[in-house]
Amino acid sequence: MADSTLKIGTEPPKENRLGLKATDYSGGKSTLCAGCGHDAISNQIIRAFYEMSVEPEKVAKFSGIGCSSKTPAYFLGRSHGFNAVHGRMPAIATGAMLANHALIGIGVSGDGDTASIGLGQFMHMVRRNIPMVYIIENNGVYGLTKGQFSATADEGSKLKTGVINDLPPMDLCALAVQLGCGYVARGYAGDPKQMINILKGAIAHDGLSVIDVISPCVTFNNHEGSTKGYAYSKEHDELLHQIGFVQAYEQIEIDYAPGELREVTMHDGSRILLKKLEEDYDPSDTVQALQRLHKATEAGAMLTGLVYLRPEKKSFIRLLNMSERPLHELGEAETRPPREALDKIMHDLM
Amino acid sequence: MSEALTATAVLDEEAGGGRPVVNDLTIHVATVNGSGSQSSNNVLMRSIFQMGVPVSGKNMFPSNIAGLPTWFTIRANKDGWIARKKEVDLMVCMNPQTSREDVEALPPGALCIYDAPLNCKSIRKDIEFYEVPFAKLAGELTTDSRLRKLLTNMVYVGIVAELIGIERQEIINAITKQFKGKQKAIDPNVASIDKGMEFARANLPKQNKWRIERMNKTAGKIIIDGNAAAAIGAMFGGVTVVTWYPITPSSSLCESLIDYMKQHRVGPDGKATFAIVQAEDELAAIGMVLGAGWAGARSLTSTAGPGISLMAEFAGLGYFAEIPGVIWDIQRVGPSTGLPTRTAQGDILEVFLLSHGDTQHIALIPGSVNECFEFAGEALDLAEMFQTPIFVLSDLDLGMNNWMSDPFKYPEKPYRRGKILTKKKLEELGGKWGRYLDVDNDGIGWRSIPGTDAPSFFTRGSGHDAFARYSERPEDYKATVDRLAKKFETARKFVPAPIVDRQPRAKIGFIAYGTTDFPLQESRHQLSSERDVETSYLRIRALPFTHELRAFVANHDRIYVVEQNRDGQMGDLIRLETGEDQKKIRKILHYTGLPCDARSITDAVLRMEGNRDEKVVRIGVDKRVATQMASED
Question: Which domains, and CATH codes, for chain B?
């Protein structure tokens, strides 16, 4: 199998452009099970924000309820965080981003939190295109309540107790594409290099980015018969392309044969590079994206990569034509209309 | 004015119709929902208002877009009593579905204008009937069948105006206002008014009992509904994030807000200083409000009882995680398939204790459109000061009906944003900051806003210590909920105090809140003027109760709590509050879906004074409405 990642540039230095170290981006000690896929994702979140030199104080972390939703306490300890209620993180995040659109938002959810109890809020958040990163740490089970199937569990997959799942899985990537999300990716917790590039592109995206990460649950869903365990995932990982990310300030020439490389410039001037593997996959093609996802499900494959990319779609903040200054900063001068305004309103009611 | 009064008296004696009743009348218009009678009814109400007579207008409408019966009640009263009155003086029957019941419910001697095919005169002999061929009259105005339907409504306005003496010019003024000066709409409506007036002059017998005559009690006043008043208050109170999910009777609050904000809160660069989001449901609406409050915006949502139920989980999170936000509850009857278009005060306990665990919420209870305006700003302040969801309990009667009011006063006070941590404050605290540390001994910590120069923290429910660190230690949890209780005690000193009218002779004390104020004030007047019974009155304006409540109960022998729900929810909260004195509490309860009226309260008090063992009296059964509802099923 090909490497999922393009080698670009040099290794990052010991300090980023803000003079911060990677440890400035770490969080509390994880309380998840040793070997949990979620911890691997947290590590890549730390690295992505560090390497992109994002000021941690400008980041707001959001989560719902479940094992995945505990993780914001384990990364970016200098950022604000909000562990909300089950399935309702999108509403909290939407409100916060409206109050302060200068925040860089990152939400972490799970398959239970997103695909079951929070499906409605998830879909409406996608539809509104709230500018933030939304990660689903997808392991096919409810971990924190000890191993019940979730709505992303594959048909025919088996619980540790022997129970077989006989309902079809929900494909959150396909759903996001269908709802017009401008950045949809699937990653695998066991492939950190691909993950970090997907994350960087998502942070650069001015709109909602949905990242569905297959993240094995070592305690409840990593056994034989599981389709979301490490062994199964490694065996069935199918790459859409090789992915690379180049920051706006990086002067890097990329040299590839014609037709081999797709280059997409993001809102902030950064670039996402996608190198062709067996097939020529166009991530801006909605029909191809849905087709490819469906084909993978039918074949029992775990398709990873940047599934869909349309960076031009207007975010909700732009759609609402909101003031450049974040709403939370506005005081009487900006938000209390003058005395004459009230006089006029009163006069019209007389 | 005195000349006019004399002239009427003379006329009346000539006609031999008994004593004239000037500027004291209730008009009831029965139409079919969706027939477009709303503008006509507004014009009728406004023209009386413009003649200087205090007036109110109430729409009693079904949960339906077109086809079901609807009533509009206008009460004009020279003394300013504008609560609903049960007795109808002048009925306009336009609806074949209800005309029989409408006529049967009239008190003897009432006037009834009816559409000719309804043949109402055959129903009773003790009513003064005025038959009008509306279809014929409207047919003479236009050939357009849709327009004809609308103009028919304006014809009855002309007829009523002619019969009771509303000035033509004031009707024209009201029409001009209603149609915002659009001549194309004004002309046919004025023609319809004239058609009605001419017909009445030529064909209907003169009546001189009920008269509207010019007086000067409305000069400088406004007419507005409570939801629009709340919207204006919120706008001047600096709201920036608004979320809502459509639900009767609250939708018009946010819809008004959208209109006002577009006019007054878009900067010279065309950029909005607000965000208004129609959410996917009430769960999302309150979630967004809390997210925005957490991130430092002044946020609100508005809903009704069923929406409040859906908000329960988030209300708990907001309480325990200490996040500001304002939730308006425009109360109405029961579940979605209850009577969603009828008024009630039935969400008191639901809101007060909303959510899981040891929650108790601060709630403001406006009793007038002016208080809707004032409390809208006040609620935004209190939410930030107390770092908690603040509920505002209005109701359908206040929110959707038309009320007269003095113009609202421009808010002079700057926003009170509460304890927001800044770098400077952090230095004052010696660098030692804990999000939930009670440094001021009032139960309220200093909060830091994301994206500012203040330090960050991790927000979660109640599983934390004073420094917002994860904790499940028993002492940390207990300290958290005990501090929340302390914060609630602090709130008693900051919420709007009750309005107390203490009469030194009074043995009886009334307690009420919200729209019950209007009939209750009138009932007190009836008790004192008709029976020489003096009463004191305390109008609650917020939860938690302030110290005035206990003193008021202690100072009276008997306390009548009057409210519009079945079980006397506020009465129960007062009982909890008043210890030994709780035995003084009696309940008068009105819960028919229609607004409470004064006479029913007066009758109940007199009955309960006569029989001191009677502790609860349920009032206001309206036979006609009961029958109508049954027939819909």
Answer: 2-219 (3.40.920.10), 224-405 (3.40.50.970), 419-477 (no CATH), 499-629 (3.40.50.920)
Tally DSSP H helices, then E strands, for chain A. Answer: 12, 13
Copy the structure tokens of residue B38. 């709303």
Q: At what angle do helices B145-164 and B168-178 cross, to 10 degrees?
A: 140
Which domains occur in chain A, in start order? 22-329 (3.40.50.970)
Q: Which of A79, A96, A98 shows the shortest C-beta gap to B456?
A: A79
CB A215 within 8 A of CB A277: no
Partner residues linked to A105 by β-bridges = A60, A132
Cβ contacts of B407 on chain A, cutoff 8 Å = 346, 349-350
In angstroms, the separation between the Cα of residue B233 and the nearest Cα of chain A is: 10
Alpha carbon distances (Å) from B22 to A192, B164, B332? 85, 9, 34
Question: With an 8 Å Cβ cutoff, are A326 and B288 in contact?
Answer: no
Give the CA-trace dihedral at B589, B595, B599, B602, to 10 degrees.
30
CB contact under 8 A, B415 and A331: yes
DSSP per position, A206-233: SS-EEEEEE---TTTS-STT-SSSHHHH
CA-angle at A78, arms to A77 and A81, nearest 5°: 70
- Asked if the Cβ–Cβ distance from A95 to B470 is below 8 Å, we say no
Cα–Cα dist B63/B492, whole Å: 39
B421: its two tokens? 């941590």
Q: For chain B, count helices (H), then strands (E).
A: 22, 24
Task: Residue A335: list chain B partners with CB under 8 A.
Answer: 238-240, 265, 273-274, 298
pLDDT in tens, A312-332: 999 999 999 999 999 999 999
pLDDT at B626 exceeding the cut of 50: no
Nearest residue on chain A to B457, judged by CA atoms?
A80
Contacts of A141 (CB under 8 A, 6+ apart): A111, A147, A148, A149, A150, A153, A159, A217, A220, A221, A228
Q: Dmax of chain B from CA atoms?
A: 88
Measured between beta carbons, the chain B residues lying within 8 angstroms of A93 are: 291
Q: Which residues of A touch B297 (CB under 8 A)?
A: 95, 98-100, 327-328
Are A173 and A306 spatial neighbours (Cβ–Cβ below 8 Å)? no
Q: How far is A81 from chain B (nearest CA, A)?
A: 5
Residue carrying structure tokens 């190198």: A275
Question: In the prediction, which pLDDT does A4 show?
Answer: 86
pLDDT tens sequence for chain A (350 residues): 568 888 776 666 789 999 999 999 999 999 999 999 999 999 999 999 999 999 999 999 999 999 999 999 999 999 999 999 999 999 999 999 999 999 999 999 999 999 999 999 999 999 999 999 999 999 999 988 988 999 999 888 888 888 999 999 999 999 999 999 999 999 999 999 999 999 999 999 999 999 999 999 999 999 888 889 999 999 999 999 999 999 999 888 777 888 889 999 999 999 999 999 888 899 999 999 999 999 999 999 999 999 999 999 999 999 999 999 999 999 999 999 999 999 999 999 99
The whole-angstrom distance between A221's CA and the closest CA on chain B is: 27
The pLDDT mean for chain B works out to 93
Nearest chain A CA: its distance from B361 CA (Å): 19
CA angle B58, B64, B66 (to 5 degrees): 95
With contacts defined as CB-CB under 8 Å, which chain A residues touch B408? 342, 346
Let me know the angle formed at the C-alpha of A73 by A72 and A75, rounded to the nearest 5 degrees.
65
Q: What is the pLDDT of residues A133-171, one digit of tens each?
A: 999 999 999 988 988 999 999 888 888 888 999 999 999
ipTM rounded to 2 decimals: 0.96
Min Cα separation A241/chain B (Å):
36
